[in-house]
Amino acid sequence: MNSRTAVADAPPDTADLRRSTGRRLGWLLALTVGVVVMCAASIAFGTRDVSIGEIFSAFSGGTGVGEAVVATRIPRTVLGLLVGAALAMAGLTMQAVTRNPLADPGILGVSAGASLAVVTGIAFFGLSSSLGYMGFAVVGAAVAAVFVYTVGSLGRGGATPLKLALAGAATTAAFGSLSSAILLPRVDLLEVFRFWQIGGIGGATWDRVQIVLPVLAAGALVCILCSRGMNSLALGDDVATGLGEHVGRTRLIASAGAVVLVGAATAVAGPIAFVGLVIPHICRLLIGTDHRWLVPFSALGGAMLLVGADVVGRLVARPTEIEVGILTALIGAPFFIWIVRRQKVREL
Question: Transmembrane ranges (predicted)?
């Protein structure tokens, strides 16, 4: 055995492992601080100026105009945290399950399927409760995910990243057109969902937060429990099977968690794209490819991105605001093009 082989076969240096863990903990602290800063900015800044005194007064039960404004921003901030974290974890899980660097709830048509289901439920079944919205959205997201994966698997090579991305784009366009066709003859519904279809968290209330929180928590728990299995899937199906991983079961359970996250998030905030694409890639650049770390990191990163985008949308167009779905698209579209050029999708 030569020296080069001996070095390759040597166990990882304990110091290297400590440095890796220390780096991850450092980035975890930085992301946590970033989330706290974005939350403070979301409460303090908006289309109307409020003073520091009004902010503290709102937390202590004040009833003035400024306090009322702050009181509406708090549930909006919490909902932004939940939706951003959910979309980022869902995107990460989809990328792991499909081994597709372009996977995202918006790109693969899952968000569009959830939106179409909600619009159909309201227009034809008199859907009116938030819980009903989430039920229809989860079913629609699941149907869209199965449809896109089936279409993307047709032909030679199976479900390649390029075929999945094209199938998702076509599905998104088709479902978006169907949603518009359902809404256009119904002026009352069109007015209600005009901004919802863009994607935003402006109508957040504590009731909506309380309803969506347990659903998102369940989906997040499934993704966390599947994180070790996602590491095995990244090695390929044959290697994962050799390591004792039940590939089909892991894919099914992890996909179910992602679908629940996307459906619930879409039901309360509309279809918000690219959060699940951008954040997982940034997190991999920072801490590596271990999904046991990537899942919580993606949750924090997605929460920070969505709340930050919402703050920017409130400030750049005062006294009106730009919906957060528009801003995430402006951020994510160039990132999508960069990934396509960098990863050489046809070779994946």
Answer: 25-45, 74-94, 106-127, 133-152, 164-184, 252-282, 294-316, 322-340
Q: 198-202, 206-210, 235-239 — which is least confidently predicted?
A: 198-202
Burial classification of residue 62, based on how many CB atoms lie within 10 Å of its CB (0-12 exposed, 13-18 middle, 19 or more buried):
middle
Residue 348 has pLDDT above 90, yes or no: no
The first and second tokens of residue 199, run together, are: 């994607």
Give the whole-angstrom CA distance, residue 329 versus residue 311: 15
User: What is the rounded CA–CA span in Å between residue 167 and residue 181?
Assistant: 21
Instruction: Answer for the pair 233, 240: CB distance below 8 angstroms, yes or no.
Output: yes
* pLDDT > 80? residue 82: yes
DSSP state of 347: G
Place of tokens 């619930």: 264
pTM: 0.88
Integer Cα distance of 152 and 284 in angstroms: 25
Distance CA 273, CA 305 (A): 12
Is the pLDDT assigned to residue 4 strictly greater than 50? Answer: no
Residues 6+ apart with CB under 8 A from 145: 108, 109, 110, 113, 255, 258, 259
| Plot region of 270 (φ>0 → left; ψ -120 to 50 → alpha; else → beta) | left
